[in-house]
Amino acid sequence: MAEAGRNPGLAVWVWVPIAALAAFELVAQPMIRAATPSDRSWEAASEYVRARYRSSDRIVAAPAWADPIVRAHLGDLLSLRMAAPPDAAGIDRLWELSIRGASSRDEPVDLEKDFDGVRVRMWSLPSQELVYDFVEEIASAKVELLDADQSKACPWVAARQAPGGLERGPMTPRERFVCDARRPWLWVGATVLSDLELQPRRCIWQHPAGPDPVRVTFTDAPLADRLLVYGGIDYQAERKRIHVPVTLRVWIDERLATELVHEDGDGWSGVEIDTGGLGLERATVRFETTADNPDARLFCWSASSVKGRRPVDDAEHRPSGGAPR
Amino acid sequence: MSDARALKGWDHLIGAALCVGSLLLLVATASDLAMSRDESFYLHAAKSAASWIEQALSDPSSAFEQERIDQAWRYNWEHPAWMKLGFAWSWLAQKHLGPFPNESLAFRFPGMLTAGLLLWLIYAWAASVMRREGALFAALAFAWMPRVFYHSHLACFDVPIAFFVTLTAYTYWRSLADSRWVPWLGLSFGLALATKHNSWILPGIFLIHFIWVRRDQARSGRSERVSIAWLPSMLVLGPLVMIGTWPWLWHETGRRLLAYASFHLRHVHYTYQYLGTNYFEPPLPVSVPFVMTFFTVPLTVLALCPFGLYERRDALRPPWMTKAGAPTNRRTEVLWFGCMLAPLLVIALPSSPIFGGTKHWITAYPFLALFAGWGLVAVVERAEISAWMGRRWPTWAFAALCLLPGAVQTAHSHPFGLSHYTPIAGGVPGAADLGMNRQFWGFTSGSLASWIREKLPYGGSVWTCDTTSGSWAMMQRDGLIPPNIRAASSMASADLALVHHEPHFAEVDYQAWVAFGSVQPVFVLRYDGVPIISVYENPRKIGR
What we know:
The complex is a heterodimer of chains A (325) and B (544).
Chain A: H1 8-11, H2 15-34, H3 39-52, E1 57-62, H4 67-74, H5 80-83, E2 93-98, E3 111-115, E4 118-124, E5 129-133, E6 142-147, E7 150-153, E8 156-158, E9 175-178, E10 187-194, E11 200-206, E12 214-222, E13 226-233, H6 235-238, E14 246-252, E15 255-262, E16 269-274, E17 282-290, E18 299-307
Chain B: H1 9-29, H2 37-58, H3 60-63, H4 66-73, H5 82-96, H6 103-129, H7 132-143, H8 146-152, H9 158-177, H10 182-193, H11 202-220, H12 230-244, H13 253-265, E1 272-274, E2 277-279, H14 288-296, H15 299-311, H16 332-348, H17 365-382, H18 393-413, H19 427-434, H20 449-455, E3 460-463, H21 469-477, E4 485-487, E5 496-500, H22 506-516, E6 523-527, E7 530-537
Helix pairs in contact in B: 1-6, 2-4, 2-5, 2-21, 5-6, 6-7, 6-9, 7-17, 7-18, 8-18, 9-10, 10-12, 11-16, 15-17, 16-17
């Protein structure tokens, strides 16, 4: 094929780039594997974090796909709230275990140490003391299903959990309020939602029953400077953006404090209620969910009573997203 | 038209050796792979078909009644019968004669056989038109694509359709020069139709190629014209073979054919992660099949393919750009190019349902490998490698060097074939950084078998996530999982819960956290450091 008219001087070297590519592939494959941090590196980094850990610390992985590895090493330190934060309250420090030069934050670090491919970094965060986490206190609430002229109490029971699986929505906790056995989705309890961004959110499942509210009442709940209220819908139901909005009304001592209207596409989002000016240390706080049509309204919300200033002074009234990542 | 070399007996010896060698390798490595999700459905269908075959042999009059046919063939009606019949016959052989060491291999063997035959076919076709070094290279380059190697193991339709599409293209090509091949074309197209719907595009590709050849001939000024007899053969024999091998279509034929076509034209969308975005709805980016090919086919083979295309550019020139009176041939390269490009373009169409896995355009890869074979021949000849020492071994050494990356990567990809990415993507961790699909079908649970056996020495239950109960049962029958470790239907009541890592399975991860009250997996199965499966242990069952 080396025909007359072609330049044999260059053509005879054509094998070189091909051989170089083959050599590149042969060398790159083991190099990629060799760059993978060893179990020993992960263990050393984890021990370092474990020795300095406090209960108000959150631990994350970078890149996010390494998260199961980090949880395998340090998951026993993480509460469901810390692993699936609904908001930034109660998190004083953020630990990050990162590989491959990945980073979850750009801010200057307070601490950094490398463990042969696993880098540990720590940031101190603006203090927002968590005074009362409504999600973790759900068992002490009263739950009712209202219709036009009466209310029906939903009992707190230990009930069979959902089987789990893809597109099955959040897992039912073992103990929960069950409102209607014929409508198995009408329960109220603490779970973890996969939000529109597939992020975990610790929250209270309170699927609306329709235009008549499902009501959750906390009597004598501690209040402080602000009440952070967030809500979201399971990603499978929200991503289609075809369903009606869900309304969450928050009442403090019988006064409507806020009305959060969650539309498909909002993702995990919420409001801050200034409770510092109410002059109340404790109050009855009521959460009511409604929707014109309850189909596929897999709504879950969180509320945190917090003390301390906002992390960012000019935070918008309707922040989206929760804890630092 | 004589534009091909007649094959010699030892060409077929080489082809047969490729086939047998491939079969032996696949058989030896199959037990590392748990049955994939789709396999578990097809083996269920195959068992149903096998019971019908047994009845047809013992009591034909009742076997052919619609009620009995519907009973046997309704399950998995959306896929034609040819390979399922193959799985069924193989399983019947296992049932009565026991030639295979385990049941899953009995189901998988027919698919493996098509993988071996495909290597033979690639070699034979290539050896007809190019140097044998290129032909052997093409066959091995195809065999040593990591994802092809994975799919070659399975009791599925993807490698079989790659074989039957290539066989149909080959018989079409032969029929252009020799009318005795026309009926064989109809038969092979029928078998392709009876294997999978990828075959639907073949008449269109052939028609474009045929018009190309006819225009060539018209410009040549000679009276010779290639016959269109191939088309009626395909259009008549093809559907007859498909219907004849598919009992489901023997009653209510028209309605069921329409339902079959409609099912695939309006196919459900698979959730697919691509470059950091999780696609639930179409359109997928047009780039998906091209980037996935770039990231999963060994780079050296990919580089040789365009080199081959460039080398054969004269043969790819449109008819209006050829000189009037120039000699004509079958334009083999145009046919190959069409067969390579069309499957990629079909998936790239914004109107196509979401099919992200490379298996959906795997029919393109035999032709990609054939052009890579041309590329190798071109490099060897341009560089005059054979002339370096007056011997042929430098040529073979260069071919071996070009094959080695594929072989090494394929070896490393096993048994995580669908998680493997080539170095150009940064390997497995690089692909995870880029946000590429990590797996599907739940077959990676097989890699946990020994860990689970050790963890549950006295038996127990496992919630198996994306691994179907049928796949789990096959692992038990194959002896990978003891019978006293059962698949649990409820996560909360299981001893162990598995989570296969794909972004949309995040909700399952969170379900496990709530079910077990812990976010700590007891084990994370990793491949090159990237999580594949997390295993959670039920705290209520520990120490039981």
